[in-house]
Amino acid sequence: MLECLYGQLVCLCDGPTCLEATQCRGTRCFSSVKVGSNGVVFERGCLQGPQKIRLHCSTAPSYHQAIFCCSQDICNSNTTRSSLMSLLPSAPEGEPVQYRVETLALFVLGPVVVLVLLSVVSVLACRRLHHGRLQRLQEFDTEQGAIDGLITSNVGDSTLADLLDHSCTSGSGSGLPFLVQRTVARQISLVECVGKGRYGEVWRGQWQGENVAVKIFSSRDEKSWFRETEIYNTVLLRHENILGFMASDMTSRNSSTQLWLITHYHENEGLAMAASIACGLVHLHTEIFGTEGKPAIAHRDLKSKNILVTKELRCCIADLGLAVTHSQADNLLDVGNNPKVGTKRYMAPEVLDETIQTDCFDAYKRVDIWAFGLVLWEIARRTYSNGIVEDYKPPFYDQVPNDPSFEDMRKVVCVEQQRPFIPNRWFSDPTLCALVKLMKECWYQNPSARLTALRIKKTLDKIHSSLEKGKSHERSLRQLQHDSQYKVS
Fold first, then answer.
1. Which domain holds residue 70?
2. Does 334 qualify as catalytic in the annotation?
3. Annotated binding residues for ATP, as ranges?
4. Beta bridge mates, 250
5. pLDDT band at 487 (very low <50, low <70, confident <90, very high)
6. Tens of pLDDT, residues 66-86
7. Is 29 domain-assigned?
8. What is the pTM of this model?
9. What's the CATH number where 18 sits?
């Protein structure tokens, strides 16, 4: 008798699963015979684990199968096909042998058929409910006079401030509670279209007398809508320099599905103060630890059009549909499933030449820093100095076409290693000169040499502090001159 290895039995292996081996090892040996539409299949082999042993060895012989189990080395060598066939119970008199095959087919295909039928019924029921919902929405539109929008009945007297205060303390992420989100979405009336892009449209809407922004995605851009909703619902994402998220909902209008993302509304959209953008970027890039923490987030599509400006001239970073998240605890990098990679004009060299380390989260943060440098350049062009200011132009406006291709940008940024043009007047102004140095440190060809968002924020704070000290010193000199003149007179 052969010796056992690691306490396992040596069994004879004979059947389609054995390949070229004649022996196998397991906790039980078995022999089996199965009668099916393809004839009789005889097999010998091993069983491993208590579940498989219990499943196979406790099965009583049926019309189409018999299994013999044993617990000694090579104990299944004495069983034969004929000996196992003799264990099969006889079919009832008059019953054809084909009944066994039909019974097998019934057991195998029956559950599949039932699942298919249940799926069809579920789809039909959902369509019926969806159709009824659309009819109710149309009735509300007619009765309440909505302007091409979606309105339902009031759910209470809660103000926007009340709901937002609740969302900040409930641990539910940066938006409203999910049930409230859907209710709010259906109470909004669309007033005017304020912007269009590749994703769809942005509308100014009204909810209980207050302006809100409604970003409407088309159904073909569902991945962007889903990803942005997922990111905005991240716990502790709310920040004064990240666009305030209110709600997200999927609805239908004019016989087409629309995906809504509802945020705070800010009248000024575009360029703004660099310090508040850097502050928002620091918050995104920073992981907050704890049970109610937030992952680190890289934007991947930072540009001036994705930066909104409040009435107080504070900037908010928006459009998180391409964002990437990372958690140190499990070292999990979540890039989402959106194939879009950002705006070509703002792409970093490593994205354009496809050398970016896609499995490294820091690589995505460095892409944000490159884009921030371009936004900083846009801001500097619109900054008055000695009575001079340039017209607004996008980055690389004089080097690539209006709608540059991937290859256009790769040639300029990677091959020729060009950067946006710096006017001479910037170097004669201390503040603009400091900004030029900062933006150049965001544009290094080597991604690891670029500044971090935190270092940018500290540098901008230092520039601002120096500017304030200069103004304070100038005011002091004027006051001294005034006091001297007063004493002489």
1. 9-90
2. no
3. 215
4. 259
5. low
6. 888 988 888 888 888 888 888
7. yes
8. 0.54
9. 2.10.60.10
